[in-house]
Design brief:
The chain has one domain. By secondary structure, the chain is an alpha/beta fold. A 4-stranded parallel β-sheet has the order 1-4-2-3, covered by helices on one side. It contains 5 helices and 4 strands, in the order E-E-H-E-H-H-H-E-H. This is DUF488 family protein. InterPro entries: YeaO-like (IPR052552). It comes from Dactylosporangium maewongense.
Amino acid sequence: MTKDITYRRIYEQSSPDDGKRVLVDRVWPRGMRKADAQLDEWLRDVAPSTELRRWYGHEPGRFDEFRRRYLTELREPERQEATEHLRAIAAHDKVTLLTATHDVDHSQAAVLAEWLTGARTSTT
């Protein structure tokens, strides 16, 4: 599996170095036109559940618990197809995981990058 996985906000300018651009949010980013997103994939089913997202509220103090709960969600049988598809993309291509979240280091994109590479990301 390639270890070339990055993440960033979808609102940032795309780059030829992005590789496959995969949106990992459950809902479409506010104010972003689909034509401007330059996506290769939109994998809603790898995003956190609505309940988990609402509980987390992007509060950095809850990030470790969010990470734990989200990783548990990723193992749910109904997510298997989406998670296997994301792993397959990452196995063959450079991947940039995209999210609308302001604090990308405390987002599902950061957790997914960690999950795909097997590395633990910083929570500072």
